Amino acid sequence: MADNKIDIQILSKPLSIDACYNFVLNEKCGGIDLFVGTVRRWNKGEEVTHLLFESYEAMAIKEMTKIAKTAIEKFGLESISMHHRVGQVDLEGIAVIIAAASKHRKAAFEACEYAIDTLKDDVPIWKKEFLKDGSYWVNSRP
Amino acid sequence: MADNKIDIQILSKPLSIDACYNFVLNEKCGGIDLFVGTVRRWNKGEEVTHLLFESYEAMAIKEMTKIAKTAIEKFGLESISMHHRVGQVDLEGIAVIIAAASKHRKAAFEACEYAIDTLKDDVPIWKKEFLKDGSYWVNSRP
Amino acid sequence: MKVLCFGVAKDIVGGAELNIEGQHAQNVSELKEYLNKTFPKFLEYKSYMVAVNQAYANDEISISDSDEIALIPPVSGG
Amino acid sequence: MKVLCFGVAKDIVGGAELNIEGQHAQNVSELKEYLNKTFPKFLEYKSYMVAVNQAYANDEISISDSDEIALIPPVSGG
């Protein structure tokens, strides 16, 4: 599979929707779906001040590449870009972007949803949520 | 329904993903889905040089607003932006952008797909496809 | 009666606005009948819709000179 | 044997890398047993995974000092 179809990045600076869009855009495609995961103030009734992401970078890149390859094969995508942020992300900041491009829109929607769902299940990245009165690793509360 | 939840525009200049994203972004949301419809070179084996869009603008705005309101009610969106281009759009140019923001990502995906599907069925906008050897109104070939 | 024309309908009638003199149509059905007779090329195309005052209108809807009437060929936005 | 620790595992062992002296574990299952005994706080948390050479590994996978071993608490990216 050509490298110019897949763009995987883990970045410690703010993510760029344009960067993901420009990577996947090409004249074979009529539909591009972008998912942008942002930091919201309220989670299960608790007030969030910011998040902190850490990754097992080498393995995260491998797992994300696996997801991208599967998405291309399964849905017939032309190209896919997956960027994940590490470090501190404030309210309304971007944690993750997935861009999927295909000839027709249905495949782009399905692939994008598949990619974010699987990323959340499999990719070794962890989120620490900072609340007004403390912090904890998400999914790891005792 | 507050006006700051819905942004509908028909524009004769290039569309901006940032404009749609910034409209829907807010601290209540964790998931934003954006659909971007672009002009592709090949359609059913024919080579496209560019497209021309025209709209019945007043009615198109009404129909798009109806879709936006339904998407908010049906999927529990926080906000939605729908921009459609008119005039000439070249290869890789953007014809339409839909941005949908919600607390959780599932609703954003579903609402975005609902909105573009319904737009394509109901909104009075027409596309003329220019090929190497002629042009025709899409869906209106004799 | 003034009728706005879009897409292929504009090409068929030869302009973005069609002026129909006289009382040829009291409702949407009669308007379509008149148009198909006057511009037989409409019959070669897939059916078109009529909008009255910026809303899709079915055949029974009455029309008058004060209504905003438009011919809506199959849409193809997006 | 060197073990990379992430997320809550880093807090439990008190660092991003844990050095295990001696031959305490020949496979993933034995490593988990050793860790749960040495750091009983692991038992309070949901189960964690072990990655060997950057791939998820089940209990039977053998491990040695030359492998890259990591503790993977429940992930929460995105």
Task: Describe what you observe in this structure.
The complex is a heterotetramer, with 2 copies of chain A (142 residues) and 2 copies of chain C (78 residues). With 142 residues, chain A is an alpha+beta fold. Chain A has one domain (3-133): Aldehyde Oxidoreductase, domain 3, CATH 3.90.1170. In chain A, 32% of the residues lie in helices and 40% in strands. In chain A, helix 2 packs antiparallel against helix 3 (105-122). Chain A is elongated, with a radius of gyration of 16 Å. The N and C termini of chain A lie far apart (42 Å). The model of chain A has no long low-confidence stretch (mean pLDDT 96). Chain C is of the alpha+beta class and 78 residues long. Chain C has a single domain (2-72), classed as Ubiquitin-like (UB roll). In chain C, 23% of the residues lie in helices and 23% in strands. Chain C is built from 2 helices and 5 strands, in the order βαβαβββ. Chain C has helices at residues 7-13, 28-38; strands at 2-5, 17-19, 49-52, 55-57, 69-72. A 5-stranded mixed β-sheet of chain C has the order 2-1-5-3-4. The N and C termini of chain C lie far apart (31 Å). Classes of the chains: A alpha+beta (142), C alpha+beta (78). The A-B interface holds A 17-18, 21, 25-42, 91-92, 103, 105, 108-109, 112-113, 116 and B 17-18, 21, 25-42, 91-92, 103, 105, 108-109, 112-113, 116.
Distinctive features:
heterotetramer, A: 142 residues, alpha+beta, Aldehyde Oxidoreductase, domain 3, five-stranded antiparallel beta sheet, four-stranded mixed beta sheet, 3 helices, 9 strands, 32% helix, 40% strand, C: 78 residues, Ubiquitin-like (UB roll), five-stranded mixed beta sheet, 2 helices, 5 strands, 23% helix, 23% strand, globular
Helical amount of chain A: 25-40%
* Main beta-sheet strand count, sense and barrel state of chain C: 5 strands, mixed
Order of helices and strands of chain A: EHEEEHEEEHEE
Query: Separation of termini of chain C?
Result: 31 Å
Could you give the count of β-strands of chain C? 5
Order of helices and strands of chain C: EHEHEEE
Instruction: Compute the average pLDDT of chain C.
Output: 95
